[in-house]
Amino acid sequence: MIESIQNYKLQIGEREVELETGRLAKSASGAVTVRCGDTVLLVTATGSSEPRPGIDFFPLLVDYEEKLASIGKIPGSFMRKEGRASDKAILISRLIDRPIRPLFPKGYRNDVQIVATILSSDQEMQPDTLAIFGASAALTLAGLPFDGPVGAVRVSELNGQFIVNPTYAQANESDLDIVVAGTEESVIMVEAGCRFVPEQKILDAVAFAMGEIKKQVQAQKEFAAQCGVAKQEYVNPFDTTELKNLVSETCRDKVYEAYHQFDRETRRSILDEAKKQLKEKVKELPEDHPITTLLVESGLDFVSEEFKSLEKEIMRAMVINEGVRADGRKYNEIRPISCEVGLLPRVHGTGLFTRGSTQVLSCATLAGPGLAQELEGVDPQTEKRYMHNYNFPGFSVGEVKPMRGPGRREIGHGALAERAILPALPPKDEFVYTIRVNSDVLESNGSTSMASTCASCLALMDAGVPLKTVIAGVAMGLIKEGDKTVVLTDIQGIEDFLGDMDFKVTGDREGITALQMDIKIKGLDLDTLGRAIQDAREGRLFILDKMLATIDKPRAEMSPYAPRLETIKIDVDLIGALIGPGGKNIKNIIEQTGAEIDIEDDGSVHICCNNGEGMKKAIRMIKAQTLKFEAGMVLPGKVVRTLPIGAFVEVAPGKDGLVHISKLANRRVATVDEVVKIGDEVVIKVLGIDEKGRVNFSMRDVTEEERQAALADR
Questions:
Q1: Which of 135, 92, 132, 84 is closest to 112 using CA atoms?
Q2: Which one of 174, 200, 226 terminates a domain?
Q3: Are 662 and 619 in the same domain?
Q4: DSSP secondary structure string for all residues of 140-178
Q5: In angstroms, rounded to a whole number, what is the distance separating the alpha carbons of residues 224 and 30?
Q6: Angle at 22 between CA 16 and CA 23, to 5 degrees
Q7: What are 654-703's pLDDT values in tens digits?
Q8: Are residues 77 and 175 in the same domain?
Q9: Structural domain containing residue 283
Q10: CA distances from 289 to 219, 286, 294, 296 (A)
Q11: Whole-model pTM?
């Protein structure tokens, strides 16, 4: 435990960042506060003293906690307190996890938890890269066997210059928004959302980011030395050498045979048989055999672990030495692709994308602007008009799994595919609809997030959404053995699981819209990253051609089952009259027409309705409710009151005027009842408004053509 308060300041880009430890959360293994301007985060790292028994993975848990008190707000929920983590918080948790996890030693099974809590936010400085920086600093101060430190920065470009850790406003203005994390020597993680940025600019931004990352890594080393931290050395307590030799002797030939069978089911069958034989051989070992003793004392399934290591060795050797992948493809070869649209009759737009044995069905749904998703969080974004939901049911991989809500992985994959499509969407002033795409993975063998991107684009075009361009995505992999490195295009599941990289790139012919890279080894050099980006471009263009062969542009007409949307403008000072006291007027229009109506502050009124007649009626009622009389207007109305001097005609609720007896007809009228009675439907022309604000109508001055036109518009 660090007894005294310690501080360290450094410059990240144009801003000063301060680290402090020893004041808060002193019972955690390591804790730092990170401050940049008025944005303050507390990041803690806590490690258990003993490994968790019976597991074969590293139990790292990362939580990013949003506190609305940090922006001076009380949560708007019924309970007035924070509930489940928002999607944004989950995405930042994943962003922290991804560069940290690969840097713990193999075999380390002690529980480690990182909690990043935002205590204060100026809603200008984006906190995610500060959270990664703080997590690395907290782990370093905890002295855990973490092969860091790591640094992280966000890079945007304005006026031809790269800027580090831009504000929300600067990032929104820029076409480039990329987060890079890495060690002193290499890149570990890249995450980007772009507006058609060329590949070379991405590489330049990553190289620029690495210069800032090195400063952060050096700062953490100096801060740890200042605090007198001693790093723990980890030595794996279990020696599996004898078991590894037994696995190799028993199964190598079978595993080699399996991986030279390019059919997935055949390979799986041979591997299952080999694993069964191995387990039987281990079971026959005497009780005092070192392998038996190891398995009993550890409580861990080292047999499966070493069997998987043998699979990994043989699969990787095939790629490196033979130039052949597990399904027989070449390095840059893409699996067979099939695209279909318009499969479901009542859905507004559908896209089915199949690549090898990965298949995704996306369904697009259109609605009015009132159904945009409202967001409540520390992030200044308050609504989303485009939503993508990604679902990964168990049957897609032949497993039995309960159907529950999306987990962190599903939320992450959905956000990546959503970010990929956003730059291609038309602006709101051209296409007011709220759009939701739901992507269901029907079969999975790798690259489902990229398949979701392609299927989403197909569904949107099928729905008639006027996309600016067509977006496709491809997942790249990496096999690195010594000084030999192979980049793989369109990786399947086994290549993702046993490989060294999962690198996803989306875009069109002009450039990149989204990018996500995760490394399982201790980093990647920029030359290899450049190769992967260029190979991804070739793969993306190949997939684009396949999609365009199915549907080359958005449909000219939307589905007959999609709602129609009209926008009319009213004077801003009439918004209150349209809404009415307590919303009475607008509620009445909605109830009578079945339309969804949204009113914006500038006087734009959006009417969304599935029924053509309902749409016409809603527009008519809105125009009537917001009517401002002008001389010469011809309007239908109803006689609501008669007097000896004339008849009062109501043309809209609360809007009426007098038709003088002399203006009722083209003849002398003795009494009003000769021409009209209460309840009669008539057509009037506005003559003018007198000095007292009274409106004068005429029936006599309406021509037959004007009367017919007014009645047709009712």
A1: 135
A2: 226
A3: no
A4: HHHT-S-----EEEEEEEETTEEEES-BHHHHHHSSEEE
A5: 11
A6: 80
A7: 788 999 999 999 899 999 999 999 999 999 999 988 877 788 999 999 99
A8: yes
A9: 241-299+301-322
A10: 50, 5, 9, 11
A11: 0.89
